[in-house]
Request: fold
Amino acid sequence: MLARVYEALSGNTQESELAPLRRRYDANLRKALLLTRELLRICDRLAAEGVKVLPYKGPALACQLYGNVAARQFSDIDLLVRRADVQRAQVVLGHIGYTRPLRLTPRQEAAYLQSGYEFTFDGALGRNLVELKWAVVPRFYAIDFNVGELFERAIEIEIGGQCLKTLSHEDALLVHCVHAAKHQWSELSWLCDLAQMVRLCRFDFNSVQERAIRLGINRIVETTFLLAHELLGVPLPDMIGKDKDSPALRLPQFLSKAINTRSEPDPESFAYFRAVMQSRERWQDRARLLIRLALTPGPGEWEAVRIPDWMFALYPAVRIGRLARRLLCNPTSGAKKLDSPEPPAAVLHPPG
Reply:
């Protein structure tokens, strides 16, 4: 929200009163330009190696919605590739100076490519600077976007004078709603982005609803729009239900309080997963979510208990044990306070 607030106040407020906000605005501007430069460099190298990539969120969404990379705050670069291209993309990132903190055996890596959705990479400008994704959310969320179709529907946008492909408007809307739901709609800026999407794009909301229903995320989309309507006055499309007893209508009353207090639910708490379950309208998706959550091991299990590859099939049991222990030890934890996002030192004071 920093850039939007500063731009709104700069014409009507004395410069001396805006000085602290201006410093943060300038820091965000430097950060946005540095990350955009890195995005273009990475995309150039990936293209040279024949790896197709869709940048989204970050600089791509800033340009798509506001025509200016500094108009949104972001802290990393999100890149979507096909699962088959992940290995080649990692090699390219390694060649240009990025390192992946997560170390996996070949067996673990193969399993993680099926159950996970991203690898993060550190670079000269900071930690977790690049997120290389092959899915929109982890598999256990049971929201199975077809990445190949996202590439087929991709559109071109201009970023820093270069044409890159990103998500189509309808895909960006659905992905945006799912991302907000994954974090329990804890940031007002995501609702502001939704409001800007509605202002700029002529959505076919019948098509949006059809795809949302097919993915099992109609309640997530409804909840996002209802929150944007309640907090920002965003007009509600006809696709939003009017049933007063609908869970989608009850959720915003609870979620708006979390947004106002800038709190984000603890993703390892029982309260978080109960809310995730409530955000899904189909019992089949809730069942898939529970089964996948309980039986899908990941880096946490592989690090906690070392099992030889020939016993790799035992890791679901390890997962069940760790999950039960975590929920029993922390059954009521609900939310954690969000710290104010500050640019890393390397961005505030870039080398050279």
Observations:
- The radius of gyration is 21 Å.
- The chain has 16 helices and eight strands.
- The beta strands are 54-56, 77-80, 118-123, 126-133, 155-159, 162-166, 263-265, 335-337.
- Residues 295 and 316 are 5 Å apart (CA to CA).
